[in-house]
Write a structure and sequence with these properties.
Blueprint: H1 2-28, E1 34-37, H2 39-45, H3 47-75, H4 80-126, E2 131-134, E3 143-144, H5 146-153
Parallel strand pairs: 1-2, 1-3
Length: 154
């Protein structure tokens, strides 16, 4: 009976030491400092986004002018064959211009988004944040760094 008690006490001591060691490791894990950013607000305040939108609006206005010109010219052409030819030519021209506008917009928006992500990352590292999440994904917690990111953009 004495041997059993010694083994029992030894096993308990071993489990106690093991549990204490695991708890010590868990307590010493690094703490995360979490920030949140309102991406929509940052994008709205971006000068690059505003410039891109103005440029796109201008290009779409020019495209609309071309469409109106094509419609008028086609409608006022008495020769049916010539009207079909004009419609095909203007259709190709409008499609090419629309594709060019879309492609340019896509390239620029990717570049601007990448720049904003880099800016947010840099701002987070400066202020020792381990994790940055968009405000829409966070129910509670995290420090809002949106204003400091916007300030850094300017």
């Amino acid at each position: 009976m004495k041997k059993e008690n010694i083994w029992l006490v030894g096993a308990c001591a071993l489990f106690f030491i093991g549990g204490y060691t695991m708890n010590d490791v868990a307590v010493s894990l690094p703490r995360y400092k979490v920030a949140v950013v309102d991406i929509t607000k940052v994008m709205e305040q971006s000068k690059d986004i505003k410039n891109l939108k103005a440029s796109q609006d201008k290009q779409l206005s020019e495209l609309q002018t071309l469409i109106s010109k094509a419609q008028n010219e086609i409608a006022n052409t008495p020769d049916q064959n010539r009207a079909i030819e004009l419609q095909l030519n203007y259709g190709k021209q409008i499609e090419t211009k629309r594709n060019a506008i879309d492609e340019e917009y896509s390239k620029k928006i990717v570049q601007i988004t990448s720049n904003i992500k880099n800016l947010i990352s840099t701002q987070a590292k400066k202020t020792d944040y381990n994790l940055v999440l968009p405000t829409g994904m966070v129910i509670s917690g995290g420090e809002d760094i949106t204003d400091s990111v916007i300030k850094e953009m300017r």
